[in-house]
Amino acid sequence: xxxxxxxxxxxxxxxxxxxxxxxxxxxxxxxxxxxxxxxxxxxxxxxxxxxxxxxxxxxxxxxxxxxxxxxxxxxxxxxxxxxxxxxxxxxxxxxxxxxxxxxxxxxxxxxxxxxxxxxxxxxxxxxxxxxxxxxxxxxxxxxxxxxxxxxxxxxxxxxxxxxxxxxxxxxxxxxxxxxxxxxxxxxxxxxxxxxxxxxxxxxxxxxxxxxxxxxxxxxxxxxxxxxxxxxxxxxxxxxxxxxxxxxxxxxxxxxxxxxxxxxxxxxxxxxxxxxxxxxxxxxxxxxxxxxxxxxxxxxxxxxxxxxxxxxxxxxxxxxxxxxxxxxxxxxxxxxxxxxxxxxxxxxxxxxxxxxxxxxxxxxxxxxxxxxxx
Length: 373
Prior knowledge:
Elements: E1 11-12, E2 15-16, H1 38-45, E3 48-53, H2 60-76, E4 81-86, H3 91-103, E5 108-111, H4 120-128, E6 133-136, E7 147-151, H5 153-170, E8 178-183, H6 189-202, E9 208-214, H7 220-234, E10 239-244, H8 247-259, H9 275-282, E11 289-291, H10 294-309, E12 318-321, E13 327-333, E14 336-338, H11 344-348, H12 355-358, H13 364-369
Parallel strand pairs: 3-4, 3-5, 5-6, 6-7, 7-13, 8-9, 8-10
Antiparallel strand pairs: 1-2, 11-14, 12-13
Helix pairs in contact: 2-10, 3-4, 5-6, 7-8
């Protein structure tokens, strides 16, 4: 099986971005408009690169995105410095953090926006200082973004919904059964794309969406509270499936169902291939997740940032359209659906987790059953 780990961002139509062959600490005179003065060259050698991530409720940002990004910058430009901040779920905080980084003289901002619309003002402020902005993972609603790297997010929703529908059919659940739909944050452009992809599948079925919720800030506690209300309204036994946009919200619904006394859980989807999500899948509590290979995403973002710091223009294979209709250069990696059957071939093979991380004593038997070794 091919996973999303194959790096494509720097090779398009036979053109290879100069940073893959030249150190980012060089004079940047390769692909794109490289700097020509000795002063600019020195600035690139010691560039400050800002990384702004959106929240602390999503584990991947601290455990994967930041360390992978920092490591790749260090590999490409050992004298460069990564300035890192997490907005902790506040658009206002992210605005302040961005302004502080611009004041500190960053050459490039890599920004995963908490609020894609509000973050457009960060891009405007950066542009005024001639600082390019890379929209990371989530798309900023600005046509002035220099590059966007993420995944095919409609495809994520399609994978989730298709897996849910197929599993319901496999279980011979009534085609008119009730399901819950737990979407991501209303301020996250990606969440709208996940939903769009999911609805493109669910709308072709007769399953009844008994309740739908856009989870503010992707907060699992809010998703769990909502799910508890839906269980009281719909009846725990009547909920036959759950579309959850990520592992954390899926886990929240599972917790609510278990608290309501449900012994045989309905199929629940997820995303991000969190360790907890993978273990729930092995335990039969969560049906699937979507694995997005964070390492190539973060590493490619770092490559793009270093190239931009050198005055180079990355060659990206596609474009993405912002909420207001602007087109920006983009690379969209391929997401992969993960069930118990292919954990070994995806997150283990790619080194996201060690077997010892997954197969603790509580999951040892399940690991044996599904060949996770």
